[in-house]
Write a structure and sequence with these properties.
The protein is α/β, with parallel strands linked by helices. It is 20% helix and 30% strand. The chain folds into 3 domains: 166 residues, 3-Layer(bba) Sandwich (FAD/NAD(P)-binding domain); 113 residues, FAD/NAD(P)-binding domain (3-Layer(bba) Sandwich); 71 residues, FAD/NAD-linked reductase, C-terminal dimerisation domain (Enolase-like, domain 1). The strands form 7 sheets. Strands 3-2-1-7-19 form a 5-stranded parallel β-sheet. Helix 1 links the parallel strand 1 and strand 2. It is globular. 40% of the residues are buried. Bound molecules: flavin-adenine dinucleotide.
């Protein structure tokens, strides 16, 4: 049996570890387009901020592949999958045959349509490759511009704000930060923290063009103003990295569609992590959610099922967590949509940077935003995930000492 895993993020790595729980004999090949052993993307901003060292970004030790009896092929992207011949084609022309295949290629950065985007000094924060480039120019950066008010953009801004000589501006086209998951009031706490950290925030503002001479020098805004910029980080989120699949064979919507066993529409081909579109327990539909715990969990289920241990994945819901220089922000489910009949529970202590909001639909938690606290988060998440009726305990959901037996 030959297992081929494309991608060595948390989904790929968890799959390898799960396969070895069931099958110690099968051959495992791990292909990765980037030349590194498994590293943690959530830690990338901290390298830029200088709060962790480059070598601490790797989440498995150097002997990981040997320990798990895996043959790595690093630095060679997959460009095609031939599902009829059960072959993976690499950019070098090399072909790798598989019996069971896992696509765990994660996400690629969303690219805005802006003139001058190809200038040097304009990077994303989605790969160690970009971080190496950013670190090289960082000592001479004076004006950093971040595009995007989502988690990626804000993490980039806060990390750069650690460097006293750099003026950091965040440009957000929406009316407030984290607009995809937070309402305006909860977002205002994060905006305040951002400004306190020395970051200049500009909402309802977009860039129409970057100008420079090989290297970026300035940004032209949609109101005609110009901003100096010698480093630009685009933090507009990610979209599944699946350009190499044939959609006529492997079914995909936004991401690659998988069933409860993480299998795609093609037998023996599985997908997991940011690239996969799986069952959403809140909406009953399917979606992609780019978060680490979900990728790792899905990789685990994929690995078990690939190795013949049938175990069904019950699905997931949206969840995001962010640390704003000591103020945590945890968002689960949907906290933005409020329809007739929904109940909204809000508790706030703005002076202490605390804001909590829970949305109930038919007595069940549909979403929660917990800012400035972490108490009860695990319990609320379990209540939401298991769709437990909380009507009778709703008044105590946000209490400090609330305990949930679920
Ligand atoms: C800056 C940043 C901060 C983040 N912070 C958080 C956080 O605080 N909390 C959280 O939960 N999540 C966070 N995330 C998201 C989290 O990192 C991802 O959800 C997670 O890494 C997804 O895991 P994955 O295994 O699906 O894919 P990835 O970790 O993206 O790994 C996929 C791998 O596949 C490789 N690959 C892609 N295409 C090909 C190809 N064609 N051929 C071969 N290899 C290929 C890539 O090189 C990559 O190494 C953050 C992400 C970023 C970028």
């Amino acid at each position: 049996m030959r297992y081929v895993i494309i991608g060595n993020g948390p989904a790929g790595v968890s799959a390898i570890e799960a396969i070895r729980k069931v099958d110690m004999e099968g051959e495992i090949v791990n292909i990765n387009g980037e030349p590194y052993r498994p590293y943690s993307k959530p830690l990338l901003p901290f390298i830029i901020g200088g709060t962790i060292k480059y070598e601490d970004v790797f989440f498995r030790p150097p002997d990981f592949y040997d320990t798990y009896g895996v043959k790595p092929i690093l630095g060679e992207p997959v460009i095609e999958i031939d599902v009829d011949r059960k072959l993976v084609v690499l950019a070098s022309g090399r072909r790798v045959a598989y019996d069971k295949l896992l696509i765990a290629t994660g996400g690629k950065p969303r690219e805005p349509k802006i003139k001058g985007l190809d200038l040097e000094g304009i990077y994303y924060l989605t790969s160690l490759v970009y971080v190496e480039k950013i670190m090289k120019i960082l000592p001479r950066v004076k004006h950093a511009l971040i595009l995007g008010g989502g988690p990626l953009g804000l993490k980039a801004a806060l990390s750069l704000a650690h460097h006293s000589g750099i003026e950091v501006s965040v440009l957000v086209s929406s009316p407030h930060v984290m607009s995809q998951v937070l309402d305006a009031e909860s977002a205002s706490l994060l905006e305040r923290k951002l400004v306190e950290s020395g970051v200049k925030l500009m909402t309802r503002t977009s860039v129409v063009e970057f100008r420079g001479n090989g290297f970026v020098k300035k940004a032209i805004l949609d109101n005609g103003d110009e901003l100096p910029a010698d480093l630009v980080i685009i933090g507009k989120g990610v979209t599944p990295a699946l350009d190499f699949i044939d959609r006529r064979k492997i079914r995909a919507n936004v991401g690659i569609i998988v069933d409860g066993y993480m299998q795609t529409s093609v037998p023996d081909v599985y997908a997991a992590g940011d690239v996969a579109e799986s069952y959403d327990i809140l909406t009953g539909g399917s979606n992609t959610v780019a978060v680490w715990p979900r990728a790792s969990e899905q990789g685990h289920y994929a690995g078990l099922n690939m190795a013949g241990f049938r175990k069904e994945y019950i699905g997931a819901h949206r969840m995001n967590s962010l640390d704003f220089e000591g103020v945590s922000c945890i968002v689960m489910g949907d906290v933005k949509t409020v329809k007739e009949g929904y109940k909204v529970i809000v508790e706030r202590d703005i002076k202490r940077n605390i804001y909590q909001r829970i949305i109930l639909e038919n007595g069940r938690i549909r979403g929660a935003a917990i800012i400035g606290r972490t108490v009860n988060v695990g319990g609320l998440n379990r209540l939401l995930r298991r769709r437990i009726d909380v009507e009778n305990i709703k008044s105590s959901l946000l209490e400090d000492k609330a305990t949930f037996i679920y």
